Amino acid sequence: MPLNRRHTFLRRRVAALAALLIALSGVGYLAGTGLAPVPAAAVELIEPAALTQPAAELTWPDQGAGAIGAVGYPGLLGSTGDQESMPIASITKMITSLVLLEEKPLTGNESGPDIRFTDADVDIYYDVLAEDGSVAPVSSGMVLSQREAFEAMLLPSANNYSMSLAIWAFGSMDAYLAKAETWLAENGLTDTTVADTSGLSPASVSSPADLVKIGKLALANPVLAEIVSMETSDLPTIGTVTNTNKLLGRNGVTGMKTGTTDEAGACLLYSAEFTVGGETVTLVGVMLGGDTHTELNASIVDLLDSVEPGFREVSLTDKGAAYASYDTPWGQESQAVAAEAASAVVWSDTPITAVPTASPVTLGKVGDSAGAVDFQVGETTVSVPLVLDGELTDPGPGWRFTHPGELAAG
Known about the structure:
Strand content: 25-35%
Low-confidence stretches: 22-35
Number of helices: 11
Structural class: alpha+beta
CATH class of the largest domain: Alpha Beta
Strand order of the largest sheet: 1-14-15-19-18-17
CATH topology of the largest domain: Beta-lactamase
Distance between the termini: 55 Å
CATH architecture of the largest domain: 3-Layer(aba) Sandwich
Number of domains: 2
């Protein structure tokens, strides 16, 4: 049956609407795929290289007891022999010095107050001399600054000056010993006991580990660190005094205190410095119970020669080293690389681990942040930022229009 005009008009209108719907659907598809966010790039971490170094081998003497540590490094680097408390002879004077400086501080280059010595100090001199202890001259009415008196005590290891200074600062030996006991407890030096100021008493004892801690405390006091590094000093009335530490200035040795008694043997608390990778490493060590100071010093030199190569500057990462890779569904690739180089000075086989973390990335430019890699070096963490080394750009309409499923999943 032929269509009338009304039917023809309706049919054309329906066709036009259908065409419009199809066109609108196409536009919607194109707009949807063209404007939809693209999925994030797939990321894969790259296994970092092993960084832990071989263990150092230290050269210890066959006799005596000792330990060595380094400032800024926890615990000990190594030890030998009996690690229990034992007589420490004149190393005791380092404890005396630290306790005195807490009560009567000195800073910078100041000399401190003047100390006038009396007949009582002369009596102390003769008492120590009668015990065959080490002394430095003193006379009634003589005046030294606090700093000069410290130099008289520490450089020639004068027992009489350790006693005179303790009485000057605290009023009596008993008051000093009570303060020293408190000071030792406050600093966690549980293996250490002092029965006098000089170490002439065999009841003044400590362990090698405690003595390394005491040496570190001494170096942390600039005045005390400077005094123990002096080879000589010219003092009023007394004259020139010479440091008993014959290793001073050799093999990087910068201090610290000798000791000798029948019970303790030859002893030395020492510090030494050397440079690794632009960083100064400060060692603190002690040897107790040596036969002679000549043999003791030779064994310490051998030990220092073996310790130094155990410190190494380790390259943690080069700038541009890759720690993750990115791949986009449309075929682009980039890597997360170290934004800068990093290194660390490590001791022996200190564990070093690297943990990279890559950030999610969809689109990015060269140099954009891409996470970080954290290096755990012993107890220290070194964090290095990661950046993209290549661009991840929009895939463009061609890929978008032909991959609606990936866009929908993204």
